[in-house]
Structures are given as C-alpha cells and as structure tokens.
Amino acid sequence: MKNQIAYLPGDGVGPEVLAEARRVLELCGRLFDRSFDIVVGAIGGNAIDRYDSPLPPPTIELCKRSQAVLLGAVGGPKWDGVPSAKKPERGLLELRTLLGNYANLRPVYVYGPLANSSNVRPEIVRGVDLVFVRELLGGIYFGTPRARDASRAVDTEVYTVEEVRRVARVAFSLAQSRRKKLTSVDKANVLETSILWRQTVAEVGRDYPDVTVENLYVDNCAMQLILKPKSFDVVVTNNLFGDILSDEAGVLAGSLGMLPSAAIGGFAGLYEPIHGTAPDIAGKSIANPIGAIASVAMMFEHSFKLPEAARRIESAIAKTLDKGYRTRDIYSESAADAASHKLVTTKEMADAICRYIENINAT
C-alpha cells in the first residue's frame, strides 16, 4: 500500500529537524513494509518568498491529495513586516482549517533520564505523563470581527456548542484509554465562551461515566502544572489556552524540542513538533529533532494505524536518552552528568534513534 505524505519543512530549524524525522519515517516504512510517497511543499515564510502567500495553491492541492501532513515550523523575524493577512503563521491557521483538524493532541512525557533537565525539581517532574487536547479551529484565533487601526485593535472569541462538543468527545475517549481523569480548563468566572465551554463539557461527560472530570480556571491550571504536574492525565481546553499551557509544559520535559503534536479530526492528520522556528540556532545543527521524530510516531498511530511502529520509535527515543545522547537544549554540564552524557548534533541524535529503531536491544 502506498500513502502520500505532504512534507512541509517550513522555516528556521524546521528543515533541519524534519529531515531527521523523514529518515525515521522511511526507515519504519521499510521495517514495517509500508511505502510512502513523500512530496515536498512550501508553507510559511519560504512560501511567501516564492509565491507571495504563506499557503500557496500548489501546497493546498498537495495537502488535499495527501493522507497525512508532516510540518516543521513557520515564521521568523525576516517576515515581521509582512501584513497580518499574509504572515507565515496565517499559513498554518489556514492549513488547519483546510484539513479540518479540530483536535490537537499534545502529549507531555518526562523521560526518566531527563528529570534533571527541567528547571522544576526532579521529584516533581519525574513520572509526568499527560496529554493536552486543544481545540484547534475555533476561538480567538478565528473569530470575527478582527481589526486593528492606529489607536485600537479587536479580536473576537467565538465558540459554538458543537465545536466544544466534538473536541470534548476526543478528550473523553482518550481519557478512557488512559487513567480516566479529564481536566477541563476555562475562565468561566469571566468569559461567556468559557461558561458555554464548561456547560458543554459537563453535558458530554454524562456519556462517559467512568471518567472523573475536574474544572480548573486557566490561571490556576498554569500554576498547578508546575506545582503538581503528575495530578494531570488528559487536559482539554480552548485554542488560546491550549497553545499557552502546552508551551508552558515544555519546561517539565526539559525543552520544547522534546514535544510532538498531532492535529486530528479532518481528512488528513497534521503532525509537527510544538516548538517554533528558533531562528537564533537555525543552520547550526544543534536543534533537537526528538519532537519532530515523536510526531512521526503519532502519525503512525493516528493516520496509518501502525501502533507497532509508533511504539518502536518511542522505545528508541527512550533508549537513546538512557544511553546519554543529548542535544544542547537538554545537555547538562554538571560534573555528575559529564561522564555519561554525549553532546550531539541534530543528525547524530537521529542517527542514534535510527540505530535503536533497527535494533532496540542494541547496547
């Protein structure tokens, strides 16, 4: 069986980490006897440079023909002066709308060897295993009116019951397969959209009596993520809060470079690391490819129904970290770690992961 994947490297470190993710994708394809047609497309800043559009027609057509989309990251200071309607990030928002992906899964898992890499105490982060389910097609990023002049700007938060209901179902189903706890995050003491959100989540929850539900205001949730991160299992929230909270959770894992994501619910899944383009380190071969590689694992899980390949990738990442391989963002210079840690490049990290994918029992 042959499956088409839209391969969108994006800007900054995007092409560097995505090149390593592609190697893992192709390797697992060979190991699990699946053939992929990987087709390159332009998005974000590089698409603006080539087509004067952050999501040009050739990329739109490519994504419409694809079963999955693998994305790097978009944006950078080079395009800061571009009008709002043409900013690189608009290309990403338009792509999510095109694909119809209303649920964004953002797992946060703290690998044991990285418990000391976080700025939070090891005893707090060790064992953290949670998933954000972020609503992706509604809220303030898409609401109208949206306007700005020299003295005033307006953004509008809009949610419908059905938008909340469908993402809540994804979150409840996920919680059923995990530890059966769902945390719904809102600002229902202030915002009408959050009142609607809380009421709708409660309504959906009646169909999942085995899942325990708690409601947290977003400011309290932001605090509890750092104080008691192991108390969370599945967290469902709106577009803006999910964007902010999942980035905050990057500190638990030691680096945003560790975190993958999957946008699902449409005709093709969208897979990308949650980090940005990191223009300050672009081209230096020091970016962490693990978030991009773990996104490929999520692609195998959700788009290609190959959980065995996903587990193989995840095990290889764990083994690589256990053996001390570290990119700069997760490298410890302490004397206690110096003997066991190996500071590696982007490619060298992927090399090690590929070795363990081929032979997970290798030493």
Order of helices and strands: EHEHHEHEHEEEHEHEHEHHEEHHEHEH
Alpha-carbon distance between the two ends: 34 Å
How many individual domains?
Answer: 2
CATH architecture of the largest domain: 3-Layer(aba) Sandwich
Oligomer: single chain
The helix/strand class is: alpha/beta
Rg calc: 20 Å
Poorly predicted parts: none
CATH domain topology of the largest domain:
Isopropylmalate Dehydrogenase
Major sheet: order of its strands? 2-1-3-12-11-4-5-10-8-9
Q: Report the portion of residues in β strands.
A: 15-25%
Give the class-level CATH name of the largest domain: Alpha Beta
Number of helices: 14
Helix percent band: 40-55%
- Rounded average pLDDT: 95
Count of DSSP E strands? 14
Sum up the overall morphology in one term.
Answer: globular
Major β-sheet annotation = 10 strands, mixed
Give your account of this protein's structure.
This protein has 363 residues and is of the alpha/beta class. The protein folds into 2 domains: 1-104 and 254-363, 3-Layer(aba) Sandwich (Isopropylmalate Dehydrogenase), CATH 3.40.718.10; 118-252, Isopropylmalate Dehydrogenase, CATH 3.40.718.10. The protein is 41% helix and 18% strand. It contains 14 helices and 14 strands. It has helices spanning 14-31, 45-51, 57-64, 88-99, 122-125, 161-176, 192-205, 218-227, 239-248, 250-253, 290-302, 307-322, 335-338, 346-358; strands at residues 2-10, 35-40, 68-73, 103-109, 129-135, 147-148, 153-154, 181-186, 212-217, 234-237, 262-264, 269-271, 325-326, 342-343. It has a 10-stranded mixed β-sheet with strand order 2-1-3-12-11-4-5-10-8-9, with helices on both faces. A two-stranded antiparallel sheet has the order 6-7. Helix 1 (14-31) packs across helix 11, helix 6 (161-176) crosses helix 7 (192-205) and helix 11 (290-302) packs antiparallel against helix 12 (307-322). The longest helix is centred in the N-terminal third of the chain and has 18 residues, at 14-31. The chain is globular and about 55 Å long. The model has no long low-confidence stretch (mean pLDDT 95).
